[in-house]
């Protein structure tokens, strides 16, 4: 009987030892990352500052809340009205710049215009401040009879000179720039049917210029038309013209244009005169007429 009791006790002790060893091995094989996550989760759940609803919600970041195609969040310290004004100024400038940029590339030279010709690396062939004579023909070294420039753009003149100098210079690089535009040109921009830069073929009033440009659009203001004119001190001065009163016979139509004048018809496209006068293209257009400053 004693022998049977010893066998039973020995079997029980063996089973207990095997069970304890298995538990220790299972705890050892558990990845460290899992244990760390369990500890973090336990610590978060035990945070007394969080409510049960907050503990149950997963933590998200701004990047998680934004959809892939959603625009980036705007800085919180930039007022909405400031952002709107910036977009409006960019829109106004975008409406103005193309006409002036196009002017420099498409301007047709005429008598009394002043140009400069630069031949890279060949200063003796370069000439600055050349006044185009009434004949339209300018004299250049090594080119008998000169070249005819009336009615041509500066790019076209540069190409002609390049071809003529190719006989004497290896791959000549020629640049022709417009220094002063004494031929009659004016610009008309804003809420007008056909904005752009035009030739003044005769003495012209503001209302005549508006008529040639197709008239003021319904979104434009006939009462607040402004003519920007360069003064002797180099500054642009605004001249207010109430075209609405002129049409009604309540004001004389006696505001005549001079070369370089810029007519601005305010409205939905161009609203603020101060912004318009700050554009580099507006200043450049006025500078090349009747002398630089």
In short:
By secondary structure, this protein is an alpha+beta fold. It contains ten helices and ten strands.
Task: Write out key terms for the chains shown.
wza like fold, alpha+beta, 5-stranded mixed β-sheet, 3-stranded antiparallel β-sheet, Outer membrane lipoprotein wza fold like, 293 residues, 39% helix
Topology:
Layout: H1 2-29, H2 32-45, H3 52-56, H4 62-65, H5 80-106, E1 114-119, E2 127-131, E3 137-140, E4 143-148, H6 154-165, E5 174-180, E6 185-190, E7 196-199, H7 206-212, E8 225-230, E9 236-241, H8 243-247, E10 262-265, H9 273-277, H10 280-287
Parallel strand pairs: 6-10
Antiparallel strand pairs: 1-2, 1-5, 3-4, 6-7, 8-9, 8-10
Helix pairs in contact: 5-10
What do these coordinates show?
The protein has helices at 2-29, 32-45, 52-56, 62-65, 80-106, 154-165, 206-212, 243-247, 273-277, 280-287, and strands at 114-119, 127-131, 137-140, 143-148, 174-180, 185-190, 196-199, 225-230, 236-241, 262-265. By secondary structure, the protein is α+β, with helices and mostly antiparallel strands. Among the domains are: 114-180, wza like domain (wza like fold); 185-287, Roll (Outer membrane lipoprotein wza fold like), CATH 3.10.560.10. The strands form three sheets. It has a five-stranded mixed sheet with strand order 7-6-10-8-9, with helices on both faces. Strands 2-1-5 form a three-stranded antiparallel sheet, covered by helices on one side. A two-stranded antiparallel ribbon has the order 3-4. The longest helix is centred in the first third of the chain and has 28 residues, at 2-29. Mean pLDDT is 75; it is low at 20-45 and 60-73.
């Amino acid at each position: 009987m004693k022998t049977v009791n010893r066998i039973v006790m020995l079997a029980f002790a063996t089973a207990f030892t095997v069970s304890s060893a298995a538990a220790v091995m299972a705890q050892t094989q558990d990845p460290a990352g899992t244990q760390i996550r369990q500890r973090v989760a336990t610590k978060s759940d035990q945070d007394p500052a969080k409510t049960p609803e907050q503990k149950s919600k997963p933590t998200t970041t701004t990047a998680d809340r934004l959809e892939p195609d959603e625009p980036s969040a705007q800085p919180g310290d930039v007022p909405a009205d400031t952002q709107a004004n910036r977009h409006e100024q960019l829109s106004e400038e975008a409406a103005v710049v193309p006409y002036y940029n196009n002017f420099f590339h498409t301007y047709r030279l005429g008598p009394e215009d002043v140009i400069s010709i630069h031949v890279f690396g060949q200063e003796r062939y370069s000439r600055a401040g050349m006044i185009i004579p009434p004949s339209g023909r300018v004299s250049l070294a090594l080119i008998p009879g000169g070249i005819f420039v009336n009615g041509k753009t500066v790019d076209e003149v540069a190409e002609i000179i390049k071809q003529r100098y190719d006989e004497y210079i290896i791959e000549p690089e020629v640049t022709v720039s417009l220094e002063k535009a004494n031929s009659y040109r004016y610009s008309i921009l804003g809420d007008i049917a056909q904005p752009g830069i035009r030739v003044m073929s005769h003495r012209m009033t503001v209302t005549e210029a508006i008529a040639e440009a197709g008239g003021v659009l319904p979104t434009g203001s006939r009462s607040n038309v402004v003519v920007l004119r360069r003064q002797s001190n180099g500054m642009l001065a605004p001249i207010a013209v109430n075209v609405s009163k002129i049409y009604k016979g309540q004001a004389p139509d006696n505001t005549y244009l001079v070369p370089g004048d810029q007519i601005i018809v305010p409205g939905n496209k161009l609203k603020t005169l101060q912004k318009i006068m700050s554009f580099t293209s507006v200043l450049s257009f006025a500078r090349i007429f009747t002398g630089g400053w």
